[in-house]
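Components:
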Amino acid sequence: MATVPLKVNRIGLEPQLYKGGKTTLCAGCGHNSISERIIEAFYEMGVDPQQVVKLSGIGCSSKSPAYFLGSSHGFNAVHGRMPSVGTGAMLANQKLIAIGVSGDGDTGAIGIGQFVHLMRRNLPIIYIIEDNGCYGLTKGQFSPTADLGSTLKNGVVNDLQPIDTCALAIQLGATFVARSFSGDKKQLLNLLKAALSHRGTVMLDVISPCVTFNDHEGSTKSYAYVKDHDDPLEEVSFVPFFEDITVEYEPGSVQEVKMHDGSRLLLKKLDEAYDPTDKIQAMRTLHETSRRGEFATGIIYIEPDRDDFLKQLNVVDEPLASLPLDRTRPPQAALDEIMESLR
Amino acid sequence: MSPIDVAPQEKTTPLSATRVVNDFSIQVATVNGSGSQTANLVLLRSILLMGVPVSGKNMFPSNIAGLPTWYTIRASKRGYVGRKKEVDFLVAMNPETAKEDVMTLEPGAAVVYDEPLKLNELRSDLTFYPAPFDKLVAAVCPDAKLRRLVRNMIYDGILAKLLDIDLAYMEQALSRQLGKKAKAITLNAAALKAGFDYAETTFTKQDPFHVEKMNATAGKILIEGNAAAAIGCMMAGVTVVAWYPITPSSSLCESLIGYMRKYRIDKETGKATFAIVQAEDEIASLGMVIGAGWAGARAMTATAGPGISLMSEFAGLGYYAETPAVIFDVQRVGPSTGLPTRTAQGDLLSTAFLSHGDTKHILLIPHSVEESYELAMVAFDLAERFQTPIFVMMDLDLGMNNWMSDGFKYPTKPLDRGKRLTPEILAKLGEWGRYKDVDGDGIPYRTVPGDGMPAFFTRGSGHNPKAQYSERPDDYVNNVDRLSRKFETARTHVPRPIVDTDKDARIGIIGYGTSHWAITESRDQLREETNVKTSYLRVRAYPFTEDLVKFIDAHDRIYVVEQNRDAQLAMLMKLELSPERCAKLRNVLHYSGLPIDARSVSDDILAQEGFEVTKRFTPASASSMTGGE
Ligand SMILES: Cc1ncc(C[n+]2csc(CCOP(=O)(O)OP(=O)(O)O)c2C)c(N)n1
Ligand code: SF4
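Structure:
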């Protein structure tokens, strides 16, 4: 029998290794599309799933790590506290590649404190908010990203200001802040690939409609609403270091950002003046688009060179978790010296 | 200050008729923030240098400056280091508390005080030594701004003279305390001398208290329990530490930072073989520790009761997800707006069952600085062996006070990194399931990210033995039953109690942690004063080992001594003891915020044994201490 040559990626792995368990989320849930893009991005970038840790809090969104990268370790933590678990895991082994999946309730309500401090630390992690403006798993209550004036199915109107997680992340010092839409396959895939090349915190807010509780006309996070109001900042083309691809681009309309791992990120600007390394402009853009009721998508802000958290802590290059005893237990002489100082 | 409302008591025997040598307590009453710590530690260390067993306890308010604080130093030739209920020698420097401090002394005590306070008018059954502190300090410290800092050293000089402490030892202790600060040493030494000279020319010794050279402290160290635990953590090879400041645990992590910076920086690269993070709160602290433990690191945090409360949800996740973690709980009194700077053993019950659902945790309970050091290392081994959070239950008295100890022994045992799946084990097992009990001890094999072994998805309890999502009733029951089995296995691995049996004793005492020091002294009192013989079991861990039942069966009545209101250890014991054994248990409870003392234990036991116990003075500090937020 002739064997059919298997399709493999850059590191020789089959697509199957990047798939996860069968989803238990509602059919059509935006979160499922995001899982699919994560699978594609990690496969295409040739990331070793053995080195990946998937982290999440609690919610429909937080369940999704079970549905991608089935051969990676995963930790479904407690509600709103995934950042701390991810921080601990990365401190233990900085060679890991961390991807965290949260929801807008998991991040914006119970987890806002840990979110704030994660952004400040620039821990190497891709932090995705699957943002549907409601609590899916507890059946549709408002979340802190629900837009002013949006309504629940039962007619209750939201009178509170929404939290803009992108603006917050930029203000707090996150070094890669982007927004996308679960239905925009191309943009989301490219953003995820770019995220994989960034050493530091990537905060990716993905609008992801909840088809069961929040996909109706009163909702600004429904499919129909987002499709009409999506305002792409720039078209993202990503050139990984290991692939020799040239992308077509018009000189003068391309913003090149050199990534931490040496690859280049090319941002095709729709708006000629948009410079994602300009923090003030990033904030202004967020405010202006939101005033118009639109979502700015794409990379909103990027700062590629800041030291990540492990560099700041001046930690040895090897994973702390597997340092041998002779490097983690000081010698007898050290204890003797301490004892002498106490006599 | 007016002469007081109490009739002066009659003079008893001439005060200095007897000589009391190396067996008394000194209490220094000052104002928080007045810089008395140096003077107190110099006094403490000089007695140690004289070869006399000594201990120091700081009773301080929740305040940075301005509220009253008391430091008690106890010299004891018999080596008793628990709190002594009676104060024998008072140094009254705080005008606000001076009157009450004096009024609550036992007859025969001595008082050194700041002359303008006129304390001698208060009682006639005490010995008073007034000294003009301001005048004395002005003469030796021309710079008025520095006077406040050296003023307290005057009383050290006075005490050196009155108690026969060799000035040379005081000076030695001073330079040890101040290190290389030459100018400060000169200034302080001058104040010391001024106090000494003043006492020499002015006072006639009238009290019976003396320090005499002994040879009982050779090679001893002086250290706080928190620093001792920190050294243990470093020697255990801890690599990830996350913490949030809270009294009385902060100094555990702070001294750990100091030691790690000194001894755990890679020589070649100058980089750290550890990561220490001051987290945003205790929830994040434990989250980080659990994340790090899950990824294979030895990780820890330290906190006090309020932090333990916040950690509750994560503690349960750690128990069910089976991730190693080491948590130090340096216990203190009540809620944050309680007496946060006072000691207690009040978190035992809530920590044993911390979290929701069926959860129970392994607790380790050290009683000394040396055991804090040793159990810190045991904690990391147990955390990895049992793949679960381990709580080390210390308290403020142990953690923040100075204790005399033998030097710590260098660890010789290799680390126990627990059951980790390797290619060889996998080949032997054939098939691996993260939560499969292959050895019958309830402990499964684990893998960690990046180790090249099979991955699994970690979640709380909703999984089958292969870590696949499951809500099946049988999977849930099998899993929680296996966790119980694991807890039973722990019974045979945790540190066993220390038992001292007197074959003639009908009554047994059970205690734990710092209560030990009062209990050992109380046992001597009971035997020597009333001929009551006792056996003693000191619990060092939960779950209890079989020794507990044996001990209870060997005695008619059991006194469980604890520093909390609700008899928390006794309650834990009653959960697994038969009704007959429960009926033997009696409680000795001490919960004033002050460390438990031997006299209170003896009196309580004697009263319950039907002896008539004379009512004694309550210590000054018990009634007059106030605490801020
Ligand atoms: C401590 C705690 N409080 C409340 C809950 C209940 N709970 C589960 S999911 C959830 C909200 C999730 O909303 P979101 O993060 O937006 O995720 P979604 O389900 O919408 O994807 C809540 C409140 C919980 N699991 N834990
Ligand atoms: S309830 Fe909403 S968020 Fe949850 S799975 Fe269904 S569609 Fe998705």
